[in-house]
Design the sequence.
């Protein structure tokens, strides 16, 4: 059954229309990836209204194109400008920029493109292998497990956002409370609407996502000001000779263990909700540097220092889709916005995604696969041109993105109230950035709030009010409860004195 | 004079006030939830209750009270991994938020199509200090994009503003 859906998705890509959406997504992803401060999440948030007019599969191709291309886009500015386009590309700067300064920009970009494409493919292949297992697991789930899985997902994300456990949990509570606005699905009673009819159906997801990830990001970018890269740096990059690309491509195959290790680290880290590409690429870089025989050359232009983080950064895309498509728990802001696109097309988030929307899931996998390769090829061709984009003044980017975001939100339902919601949530999102409350846990709780409440009420009905007793009687529920408790205690366990003592002894 | 440590969070970020505001929000939500039926109130009450407890811990970790350091250590409430490492002045932030709310107010008043070029050109000219020609160019570019993509290609009618639409705010 899965193979049919996969073939169907591949055939659909061969159809001209789908390929156009995919390529449009790739170009947009490369552009947004190159410009620091924008990134894939903003691009996806901007795209949501556009996907509304498309069928679900075409929307997957557009979104997949963006998701698969931003990482590599970010590596181009990291190598040529020493300015990472997205946070995970920071690790690529360590060796990518020194290589470019030595006149080996082409080699670095070639290696980055190949490692990105192959890393992405390894990550997606792992996802494909995991899907049949996940399907069996999800089939054995009931309401109790659905509820506990949401709690576990939120706990894991809050815990993994380093140094922000408490504020991450508070943000999750805000997200859940926002999700409760509107008519209760069980009683029909309206809650927290303040007498505003518009809120009867709850706070709409798309304006909320646009506000949280496009508007708030633009406010932060506007306050940072300036242009992404100064003219001198761009001029230097423009004059760099991009040659020796094939040398870079071959270097990846020559150092295949580095590629493989980076890809595996990326896939595993990506699969853990909340950790994301930055942890994956830095972990991959440091493990490669520490175990290499030529470790002294790292940071001075070692090609393995480009391969390792780029492979991990792209492999994490496949990994991060494991919790998203298998259990409906988005592992990153990007996959949360992606879930928003699914919701817009009538697909319900949660563990049922894999069972009910197989076609779209495989469509996304195909889109990401093609995108990973296409982004590398297009990136190699247009690298010099893409660097010029970074010359653009932030003061031009901000009003254009704000205007287009708000227009996009309006055209979705033709309601100005949606624009008001996007603006208000955008300002709230900025305050979250300013006061260091993670937006990720809020948005994931907001997306999953409804399903969590419904599952909880179903458990109450089934168990006749004895929720705990009922859950403790189900083995999978018990495992999930234990996993949640352990997750909460992980940060504390890391800081226990006996653990440090044992560490020192070892 | 020593340069300020970029990892050192600004006082306003580490102060108790953001956490106090969230505590108030949680308390209000909890109280409001009690007005609903038992089924409707159950989950919001649980979440608001949890948020009250977490906010109290958050406030505690921001003080010098006994045990605050323990909460900081085990609750992960430090500020060294901030997303926003720069520290804009209050005036800059107010100005920026003013631009955004101004854009929305203008869209509400005279419509999206008219606002887009005016907002973009004004922002580029006055906030970005770019030349008149560049500002107008950006404005016209955005207008052409809005017209071509939304009005003509996708056949949407963008909002024309309270001044030019019947029904007022209730039509939103």
Sequence:
């Amino acid at each position: 059954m899965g193979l049919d859906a996969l073939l169907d998705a591949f055939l659909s890509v061969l159809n001209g229309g789908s390929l156009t959406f995919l390529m449009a997504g790739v170009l947009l992803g490369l552009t947004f990836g190159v410009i620091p401060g924008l990134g894939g999440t903003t691009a996806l948030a901007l795209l949501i209204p556009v996907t509304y007019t498309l069928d679900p599969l075409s929307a997957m191709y557009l979104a997949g194109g963006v998701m698969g291309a931003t990482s590599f886009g970010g590596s181009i500015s990291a190598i040529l400008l020493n300015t990472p386009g997205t946070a995970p590309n920071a690790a690529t700067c360590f060796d990518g920029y020194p290589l470019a300064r030595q006149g080996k920009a082409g080699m670095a970009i070639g290696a980055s493109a190949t490692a990105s494409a192959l890393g992405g493919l390894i990550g997606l292949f792992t996802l494909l292998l995991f899907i049949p297992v996940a399907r069996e697991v999800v089939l054995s789930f009931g309401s109790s497990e659905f509820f506990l899985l949401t709690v576990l997902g939120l706990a894991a994300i809050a815990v993994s956002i380093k140094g922000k456990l408490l504020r991450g949990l508070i943000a999750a509570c805000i997200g859940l409370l926002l999700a409760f606005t509107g008519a209760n699905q069980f009683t029909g009673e309206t809650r927290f609407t303040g007498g505003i009819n518009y809120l009867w159906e709850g706070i709409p997801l798309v304006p909320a996502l646009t506000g949280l990830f496009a508007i708030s990001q633009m406010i932060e970018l506007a306050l940072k000001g300036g242009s992404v890269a100064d003219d001198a740096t761009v001029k230097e990059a423009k004059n760099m000779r991009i040659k020796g690309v094939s040398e870079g491509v071959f270097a990846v195959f020559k150092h295949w263990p580095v590629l493989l290790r980076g890809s595996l680290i990326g896939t595993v880290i990506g699969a853990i909700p909340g950790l994301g590409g930055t942890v994956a690429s830095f972990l991959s870089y440091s493990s490669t540097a520490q175990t290499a025989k030529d470790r002294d050359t790292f940071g001075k232009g070692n090609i393995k220092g480009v391969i390792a983080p780029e492979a991990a950064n792209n492999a994490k895309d496949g990994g991060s889709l494991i919790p998203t498509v298998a259990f409906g728990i988005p592992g990153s802001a990007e996959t949360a916005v992606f879930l928003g696109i699914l919701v817009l097309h009538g697909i319900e988030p949660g563990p049922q995604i894999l069972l009910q929307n197989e076609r779209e899931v495989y469509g996304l996998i195909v889109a990401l696969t093609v995108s990973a390769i296409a982004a590398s090829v297009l990136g190699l061709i247009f690298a010099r041109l893409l660097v010029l984009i970074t010359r653009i003044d932030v003061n031009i980017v901000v009003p254009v993105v704000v205007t287009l975001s708000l227009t996009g939100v309006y055209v979705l339902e033709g309601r100005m109230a949606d624009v008001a919601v996007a603006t208000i949530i955008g300002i709230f999102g900025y305050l979250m950035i300013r006061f260091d409350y993670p937006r990720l846990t809020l948005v994931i709780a907001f997306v999953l709030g409804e399903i969590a409440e419904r599952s909880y009420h179903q458990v109450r009905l089934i168990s006749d009010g004895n929720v705990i007793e009922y859950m403790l009687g189900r083995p999978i529920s018990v495992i999930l409860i234990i996993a949640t408790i352990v997750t909460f205690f992980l940060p504390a366990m890391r800081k226990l004195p006996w653990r440090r003592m044992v560490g020192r002894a070892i | 004079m020593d340069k300020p440590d970029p990892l050192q969070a600004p006082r306003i970020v580490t102060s108790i006030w953001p956490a106090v505001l969230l505590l108030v929000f949680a308390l209000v939500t909890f109280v409001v939830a009690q007005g609903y039926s038992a089924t409707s109130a159950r989950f919001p009450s649980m979440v608001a209750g949890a948020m009250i407890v977490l906010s109290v811990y958050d406030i505690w970790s921001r003080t010098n009270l006994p045990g605050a350091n323990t909460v900081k250590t085990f609750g992960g409430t430090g500020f060294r991994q901030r997303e926003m490492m720069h520290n804009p002045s209050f005036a800059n932030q107010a100005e920026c938020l003013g631009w955004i709310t101004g854009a929305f107010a203008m869209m509400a008043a005279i419509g999206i199509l008219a606002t887009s070029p005016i907002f973009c050109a004004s922002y580029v000219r006055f906030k970005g200090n770019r030349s008149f020609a560049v500002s107008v160019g950006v404005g016209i570019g955005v207008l052409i994009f809005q017209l071509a993509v939304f009005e003509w290609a996708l056949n949407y009618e963008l909002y024309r503003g309270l001044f030019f639409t019947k029904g007022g705010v209730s039509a939103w």
About this structure: The radius of gyration of chain B is 24 Å.
